[in-house]
Design goal:
Layout (H helix, E strand, L loop, with lengths): L6 H7 L7 H7 L5 H13 L3 E5 L7 E5 L1 H4 L2 H11 L13 H11 L2 H4 L4 E7 L2 E8 L2 E6 L7 E4 L2 H8 L11 E4 L1 H8 L10
Parallel strand pairs: 3-6
Antiparallel strand pairs: 1-2, 3-4, 4-5, 6-7
Helix pairs in contact: 5-6
Length: about 200
């Protein structure tokens, strides 16, 4: 049902909530408008995606996952963990803001988190997100980062460079507002698994 090229990537991009067609196209470099239309229509036909019009004043059409569509998140997480074991995996490659936020849900290590609690904000282009850490888990969602203990501002690749590449924020051009120690502690919660031989 979801084996067509791009289908799982379209679903991934909708995991944190609705998006306009133009946003999906921007966040999936390389997909043509025609193929994106076909994938959305196919996913809608099987009941994984639905279209709706936002109320005024925006009154734009968005695509969102159905409740059943959201149930695919563990599948996407498992594939993400599996893919990072590839010797060809390169965390410096382009990725969308949604992909980065989902990677935090996927790669978190409960033992490293322990009893630590905190709230981290992210500004990635025009998008904003919040990661809440409590009870040994990281939960990410779209939201206003104001009031977070630390806010990281930059591209998804810059944030990934700090979190997954171990680079200092300055080295990747990332801006940190608030408690720098909180941001650095957060960055240590996501170890990459060992590569296959």
């Amino acid at each position: 049902m979801i084996g067509e090229r791009w289908a799982l990537l379209v679903m991934r991009e909708l995991m944190l909530g609705p998006k306009r067609f133009s946003d999906l196209k921007r966040d999936l470099p390389g997909i043509s408008a025609n193929v994106l239309t076909q994938r959305l229509e196919g996913l809608e036909a099987i009941g994984v995606v639905r279209r709706r019009r936002l109320p005024p004043p925006s009154a734009v059409q968005v695509y969102e996952l159905t409740d059943w569509g959201y149930e695919a998140e563990p599948i996407i997480q498992t594939m993400g963990r599996w893919a990072t074991r590839s010797p060809a995996h390169d965390p410096r490659l382009p990725l969308s803001a949604t992909s980065l936020m989902l990677s935090f849900r996927t790669m978190q290590d409960a033992a490293r988190i322990g009893g630590w609690r905190g709230r981290i904000g992210f500004r990635i282009g025009e998008e904003t997100f919040v990661a809440t850490v409590e009870a040994g888990r990281v939960h990410t969602e779209r939201g206003d980062p104001d009031g977070a203990e630390a806010v990281l501002s930059g591209s998804a690749e810059q944030i990934a460079g700090m979190v997954y590449g171990g680079a200092p924020a300055e080295a990747v051009g990332l801006s940190i507002e608030g408690d720098r120690a909180v941001a650095e502690r957060f960055a240590g919660f996501f170890p990459l698994p060992e590569k296959v031989a």
